Every structure is written in C-alpha cells, then in structure tokens.
Amino acid sequence: MDLDRLQRQGAYEPLGPDAPKRLELLEYLSSELGASDAELVTFKDSLPELAGLLTIRGRVSLTLEEVADQAGLDIQTIRNLALAAGIPDPEPEVPMFNEGFVSFASAMTKVGVIFGDEACIQISRVLGSAMARIADAVLSSFLVNVAPAARTQDSVGLSLARANVEAASLLDSVVPALDGLLRQQLLIAQRSASDEARVDGAGFETRQLVVGFVDLVGSTEMGEKLDMTEFSAILSDFERICLETITEGGGRLVKLIGDEIMYTAPDAFSASSIALDLADAFQDHATIPQIRAGLAGGPVMLRDGDIFGPTVNLASRVVNTAKPGEVLTTTDVAEGAELPEVPIGTFELSGIPGEIALHRLIRL
C-alpha cells in the first residue's frame, strides 16, 4: 500500500482528525482483503462497501476476454450470456467478472447442448432475473438490519467494513443451500409429458390450470395514512399468509405484484378453496384489510416461471369486479369446484369479448 499515492489522490489525510482509524481501515482492506491502491482511491468515499465487494468477488477480477479464454468460449458467446443474465455489456479489457462467472458460462453451454441455444439464453435470463432479486433483497436486508448499528461504532466505517465482510462470508453457506433449494423446487415442479400439458409450435408449454388473483382492498389509501415501516410490515404479513395458504392448498404462488398476488391451482376445487381461505383469513384481521379474489380456468402458457394467455387476462378482470371480501369465478370454475355459490349475472369485462357470467362463492 503506497500511502504517498493515497494521500496525493485524496484517499488518506495523515493530519485528519480520524487519521489513525482511517489508516487502520485502509490497511485492513489492503492486507487482509487484497484491495489495490487503485481500488482504495476509486472507493475512497465508500471504503466499507469495498470490503463487501472484495469478499464477494474474491481477489481476482476477470475481463470479458479472460472469461472467454478460461471457459473455452468465444467472446460473443460470453457477451450474450452476460446480457441475458442482466449484466451490463463490459468495455474491452475492463475487469468486472468474478471467477464464478466462468463456471456459469461453461454450465450454460452444457445447457445449450441439451436444451438448445435459444433455451440456453432463456434460462440464463430467468437465472439472472432470479439472482438479481435475491441480491437486491439481501442487500436491502443488510442496509436495514445490520448497517445502521455498525455505522454508530466508529466514524470512519471500519466496523461497517467488517460487518460487510461478515455478511458476505455467509455466501459460503448460502450458495450450497441454494443448490438444495433448487433441487427441492424441481422435485415439487416435476411433471412428465404424460401430464395434461403440451408444447406448441413456438416451443412453449401450455397447461390447463385455474388462475387466481387476490387483491388487497384499499391498499393505496392505507399507504397514504401509514408510514413506510408500518405499511411494509402489513405487506409482508399479507404476502406470508398468501404464500402459506396457497402452498398448503396445493397451489403455486406465481408472483407478487405489490398489493396483489397471482396463483395457480390444478383444479377448480383447490383454487376456490384457497381463495375462500384467504377471504376468511383477512375478514377480521387485526391489521390487514379485506381482500377480493377472481378466478378463471383454461389453458395458460408457462414461460420463464410466469404464466400468460387469455385465461390470465380473464382472471385479472374478474378480480376487478369483486367487492371487498368476495370471491368471484367464471361459470366453469364454479361448476368444477362444486362449492356453494350464487350466480350474480353477466358482465362486460374490459378487453374480454362478449359478456361473462360470474358466480360468487360462499362459505356455509
């Protein structure tokens, strides 16, 4: 570590009020974590964050060209995989990849051999999106739950730097756990070509499913009245209860859309029972408002972990017709569920051709 250089470039001031502690932080980053003088200068205003970056990345940072060479692939293939995974297109000779990206690129090449090049890029896109969400959630949790206390322990950020390293070191345990969780989810999702599914000419799987939308009533007004901490706690409880109820009912939570969730179930009875259970759960909840739900059944296209098609559009319109506490379904779902229900008439739904007969499910 060249202190004269760091001083000239503004990363270290020997006569500053916190000079001894600042020097201790610089030595920690340099000697223990392998930070270069250039990195210390670049991150001179955010040295604690550099500690986390170094722990996550490791001491080696690779250029696009080096990744291609180590993976035995051409540069354009690496660039395509990186872009599909949501990684910005790097400048030539700029080191920005961790060594693990070499393994990712090699693995995706093997995926392409079995599933085809287009599917390889599609899977890379899904993995990149999923990892980006996980990374953002982990970082947000650190900033909320760990960083504030660490910042109070010293003025230059040495405690925060060590907290970054401690949190980043959890990757050694978490990454193998992700492998186990992925395998568990694959076992749950397992289905065969003999199931009620088909692959159309475009290469997408379609299945007969019941789609449900559950909307938290009055969330906009609630968000205006509550502070962010209170509102976040309510949304977290809403998501947790929905996930547990859907999973226990044999469905799958497809995605969270702020104050709304979308789920699927294999049959009308399961989908309807889930919706009724959720309506009951939030009927008299201490903090969470009532929900409304809409269900429709039919073919859906499965793509990138999401679902698409007219059935999805219909279910999203049905929920908009429901009143607080109501579960509305189309006729085929009401008949298939064989649960108590009341026909409420036909409706013109936005973007849906013709009039749609709707039924309100009731709990006796």
Summarize the structure.
By secondary structure, the chain is an alpha+beta fold.
Could you walk me through the main structural features you see in this protein, from its secondary elements to its overall organization?
This protein has 364 residues and is of the alpha+beta class. It folds into three domains: 3-45, no CATH class; 64-189, no CATH class; 197-361, Nucleotide cyclase, GGDEF domain (Alpha-Beta Plaits), CATH 3.30.70. Helix content is 54%, strand content 17%. The chain has 16 helices and nine strands. Strands 1, 2, 3, 4, 5, 6, 7, 8 and 9 form a nine-stranded mixed β-sheet that branches. The radius of gyration is 26 Å and the shape is globular.
What labels would you give this structure?
globular; 16 helices; single chain; alpha+beta; Alpha-Beta Plaits; 3 domains; 364 residues
Distance between the termini: 75 Å
Q: Main beta sheet, described?
A: 9 strands, mixed
State the helicity in percent bands: 40-55%
Mean pLDDT: 89
Domains (count)? 3
Order of helical and strand elements: HHHHHHHHHHHEEHHEEHEEHEHEE
Oligomer: single chain
How large is the share of residues in beta strands?
15-25%
What is the CATH domain class of the largest domain?
Alpha Beta
**CATH superfamily membership of the largest domain, which one?**
Nucleotide cyclase, GGDEF domain
